[in-house]
Each structure stands twice: as C-alpha cells, then as structure tokens.
Amino acid sequence: MRARLARALCVIAISAALWQPPAHAQQSQRMQFIRDGETEAIIRAYAAPIFRTAGLNPDDINVHLINDRSLNAFVALGLNMFFHTGLLLRTEHPGQLIGVIAHETGHISGGHIARLPEAMRDAWAASMISLLGAAAAAAAGRGDAAMASVMAGQQVAMRGFLRYTRTLEASADQAAVQFLDRTQQSARGLAEFLQILVDQELMIVDRQDPYVRTHPITRERVEFVENWVANSRFSGVPVRPEFVEMHRRMRAKLLGYLDPARALVQYRENDPALEARYARAFAFYRRGDFPRALPLVDELLKERPQDPWFNETRGQFTLESGDARGALAYYEKAVAALPTNALLRMGLAGAQIATGDRGLLREAIGHLEAARGREPENGEIFRLLAVAYGRDDQLGMAALAQAEVAMIQGQRATARGLAERAERLLPPGSTHMLRAQDIKNATERQPPR
C-alpha cells in the first residue's frame, strides 16, 4: 500500500494489490501475512472437494497466506491452514499444490494436533493463538504499526511443535491419497512434491526449507505414495484445465507483486500469454509505473470483460493512481460477479469513501456490513466502517466500530473508552448499544497482549 493512500484513508490494498505491513515492520525475523482474494479463492477451489470428502465444511476452514520465500504449509488449531508464498510459487502445476492441501487436510481430519503430548500441545496452542492473533491483526491495516507480525521466538516455537512423528506424517499421506482417489484426482502431484522434499533433505540443515524440518521425510513415505500412483486408476487423470490456468495466474500475480524485478525477467515483454501480461502489470504497478501497468490490465479486460479479478485489479490500480471515482465501475463489476467476497466489497467501499461523495456513504456502509458478516474478525472492515459512519454523522456507530478495531488489536484501554463513548451515543437497549457493553465487559476479562 502506498503511504499516501494509507494516510488518506488507511484503505487496505487487497486482492489486486496484496497488503503487507509497513517497511519498518518487514524484518527477516518477523512473519508477514498478506491477503489476496484471488489466491485465496484459487486455494479454496482446489481444496473444497478434498475438504468435503474428508467430512469437513469448506466454509469452516480458514486459509492464511504468509509472505515468506521458504517452502512451507501447515495447519493450526484444527481448522486453520497456512501457506507460505514460497510454496505457492515453487509448485509447478496445480496437482502439486492439491497434493499438499490433501496432506494437510489429512492432519486436520486425523486430529493430529490433539494427539501431541499434552505439554507440547499446550505450548503449541499458545504459539498458534498468538499466530492467529497476528493474522487477524493484519487485516486491521493500520499504517503506523506492524499488525501482521510475530516475533522470531514464536516462529521457533511453531517449527518445534510442528515436528510431528513420522507415524503422523505417514498417516496424513495415507489420508491424502485416499482423498485424492475419492475425488477422482491423481496423487502424482503429491509424489512429485515429496520428491522435491527429498532433494531438500539432502541440503545442510540451515539451507533446508521449513517444510522438511516440520514434516520429516522417509523413504517409506515416498515409496508408499509412488506405489499408490502406480496402482491407482486415477493416476492418469489430468488436472482440470481451468485449474491449470488458475495456477498460472496465481503464480504470475504473486511473483509480479512480491518480486517485480524477477517477474519482468521471467515474463518477457514479448510473451503474449495471459499470465505473463498479468505478472508484468503487477510488476509495473509495484514500481509505481501506472502508465505501463494500466494498459496491460486493459488488454486483459478486453479479452475477459467479466473477469472479477481483472476488474478488481483495474479498480485498485485506478484508485491508487488517484482516480477514486474512475475505480468504482470496475469494483462494481467485480462485486456483481462475486457478491459474497468480503475483500471485493471492502475494495468497493474503500473506493466509494475515497471519492469524498457523502451520497455514497450509505452504500459503502452496506457493503462493509455485508463483508463483516463474512469476516467478523477482520479489523479493516471495522476501521473502514468507523470512517464511513463518522462521515455520515453516525457518531455512536463510528465509536463502536473503532472499539471493535481496538479489541482486535488488543488495545484494551482504548477499546473500553470507545465502547463507553458508543454507549452514550447509541439508542438505549439497541443491539449496537448491547454490543458496546459486551466489548466493555470483555476488556475487564481479557488479559493484556
């Protein structure tokens, strides 16, 4: 997010422009969370059949993205699945990522966290609660604090307590290949990914990716999956074509955003592929070169005018180039295509607020309230609500929204003061006034972070 936009609106740069903490927080010893609606949607599309066949409700699984070049994925506290961007970029085709998802789903369905020794489980839970708190705080989007960071000591704890026994790893593999068979997908990608890990295991420990240290590889594991591939009648089933394109788009987008210089080398100017133009658009955007970024997105939109992510991308680029009103049509098209996506509604609401048009405030509030229903712990939604309600002279609701943000950030004293202010301004006995009282009471019970 560009500083000028953060100062003006504190609008989180979502989906088209993945959000990261400010530069002063981007230290090597910190963990950085990002949000990207398209990447999250792609992972969920891959995962949904696997979750269902494992007896899990896809809507109950939370997907988190960690900006880290290392190769890693893990589950935490049962229903949270984390992916390093390094793993997403390293997978060569969707079958490999689907294999990883199936394996991690095996850990969830097998209740493997619960099977750890009690002392280890308690320490692991404490570390993961802190980790999830940081993930939630990342959505608060404050430009003056590193809300998406976890200190190095917590990372060490995470890695230590993710060292499952070889038995649990083999169990997750066995569950994974069964899930893939039941969904009529090939396990070949999982076998390929395990071979990547075997290559990693040959490296000295300091150069190994965390996935190898937290998911110990054995020859027996590799042989089991390879045997399954050799005998499964689904091993020759190709990955769905739409999944292949989605994977190419995801990798191009992430690389363009996270490593513009590398993206411009990998995706040459004379490469006409859709994903190549997508990568270059993000690379130029990250360099602030809107005159080169915008025409590339326009080309993509000319080919696919209804694509929600291309529209969202154009909307975000237009907004950040200084034309909030011009961004509205693109955001509106994106929301019309995917009305339940909270991040797209947040983007549209942010653009509406940025226009300075009071006539759009009620509509922005409506989008944000709908987004809140999908992501009730997303602090950025409440912060934008505070701005919109404040400009609409609904001061009680603005104070309540600010109190929600403070609670997510763990600022108990601030949350209590704002909740008390909301109490005084909101209608007695209203549901919003009762929520203010709940926040005030919670500040008395919640220990400081």
Describe this structure in words.
This protein has 449 residues and is mostly helical. Helix content is 64%, strand content 4%. The protein has 22 helices and four strands. It has helices spanning 3-9, 37-53, 85-90, 94-109, 118-138, 152-161, 166-182, 188-201, 210-214, 219-231, 241-258, 260-266, 274-286, 290-303, 308-320, 324-337, 342-354, 361-374, 379-391, 395-408, 412-425, 431-445; strands at residues 33-34, 62-66, 73-76, 80-84. Strands 1-2-4-3 form a four-stranded mixed β-sheet. Helix 11 (241-258) runs parallel beside helix 13 (274-286) and helix 15 packs antiparallel against helix 16. The radius of gyration is 23 Å and the shape is globular. Mean pLDDT is 83; it is low at 1-29 and 141-154.
Descriptors:
four-stranded mixed beta sheet, 449 residues, 22 helices
Rg is: 23 Å
| Broad structural category | mainly alpha
Kindly report the spatial arrangement of strands forming the biggest sheet: 1-2-4-3
Tally of extended strands?
4
Strand/helix succession: HEHEEEHHHHHHHHHHHHHHHHHHHH
Share of β-strand residues: under 5%
Number of helices: 22
Major sheet summary line: 4 strands, mixed
Distance between the termini: 27 Å
Which residues sit in consecutive blocks of at least 5 with pLDDT less than 50?
Answer: 1-29, 141-154
Helix % is 55-70%
